[in-house]
Design goal:
This protein has eleven helices and eight strands. It is α/β, with parallel strands linked by helices. Helix 2 packs across helix 10, helix 5 packs antiparallel against helix 6 and helix 6 packs parallel to helix 10. The chain binds zinc ion (ZN).
């Protein structure tokens, strides 16, 4: 508390009051400028940060190694959710752990980026025979070029509501992001052209949208797009795939089942390429998302290039 020791003239007092007021207003705008935005997972933190730039603090709820498919909300998470000015998530089809809590958040605080996504539990629980059957409900929207562009638009609008004074900066940041992503996308598309039929194995069906976008059709995964381990039927088709196509590369996901990966790799000692689909190794800066996308497409390309000699094997195996 500030105390006035001498009794100053009324003019001086007014001046001091004005000064105090100015300080108070200044402190308020400063804290308003540092309003905290919370995202559920690291890739979303990177995407929001790319648009927010240095104007807002963008935090993340889960550690990047934690699988959002199997996470459980802790009491400390609830406090962080309540204190955030805005919370960005994909939706109940992805962060099932947040579904009930999210509904209780005030409108405007919760920003759902995957509005069109089917909710988990809507899909039938039977063993999917085809690996690309669930692409519409595949919640890994941050690995889908078109969805990334759409989400960035929703984020720009959301942030502009939160901090209208920075709206022009958010728009400029988004423009730059999209320009950089367009360039990366073109590069990746031309690089993947030669490998569209290459067979490969993935630990987790996180890449369905990315693979579909680039016309890569030869992948089979050990866990489905909701992180569920393959059932007996799926293992059967996986073994058939291994025999027929002899894929030589395994894309390992940072957040998924290590035990099933080990079981598989003991049986089929193929080469492992880590693809960082959760942005574990990417620093949370405004450039982070572009680095993340480059890293993921680069990892997939590396894996596909390793898979040599598959074309001829595939031709022989197709007749079965
Ligand atoms: Zn996943």
């Amino acid at each position: 508390m500030m105390r006035l020791l001498a009794a100053p003239g009324s003019k001086t007092l007014l001046c001091l009051l004005a000064l105090c007021l100015a300080f108070a207003v200044n402190a308020e705008t400063e804290s308003a400028g540092r309003k905290q935005v919370l995202t559920t997972i690291k890739p979303l933190q990177l995407l929001v940060k790319a648009i927010a730039g240095d104007r807002l603090d963008v935090e993340v709820l889960l550690q990047p190694q934690q699988s959002p498919h199997h996470y459980q909300l802790r009491p400390s998470d609830r406090a962080r959710l309540a204190n955030a000015a805005q919370v960005y998530w994909i939706g109940a089809g992805m962060e099932t752990f947040l579904a009930r809590t999210a509904l209780a958040l005030p409108a405007g605080q919760l920003q759902t980026l995957g509005k069109s996504l089917a909710v988990a539990g809507d899909h039938d629980e039977h063993d999917h025979h085809h690996d690309h059957a669930g692409i519409g409900s595949d919640p890994h929207l941050w690995l889908d070029y078109q969805q990334i562009v759409q989400m960035s638009e929703a984020i720009e609008q959301g942030l502009a509501v939160l901090s209208p004074a920075d709206a022009a900066q958010f728009a400029a940041n988004r423009q730059q992001l999209v320009r950089q992503l367009e360039q990366l996308d073109r590069q990746a598309a031309s690089e993947f052209l030669a490998y569209q039929k290459r067979g490969f194995i993935m630990s987790h069906a996180a890449y369905g949208r990315l693979l579909a976008h680039y016309g890569l059709v030869g992948g089979v995964a050990l866990t489905d797009e909701h992180g569920q381990v393959a059932g007996a039927k799926r293992w059967q088709s996986l073994e058939k795939f291994m025999t027929e196509q002899s894929p030589t590369c395994f894309m390992r996901d940072p957040s998924e089942h290590q035990s099933i990966e080990e079981t598989f790799l003991q049986r089929y000692p193929v080469q492992v390429i880590d693809v960082d689909t959760m942005g574990v190794d990417i620093s949370a800066t405004a450039d982070g998302f572009v680095a993340f996308y480059r890293n993921v497409t680069g990892g997939v390309a590396k894996c596909l290039k390793l898979a040599e000699g598959v074309e001829s094997l595939k031709r022989n195996g197709d007749g079965e």
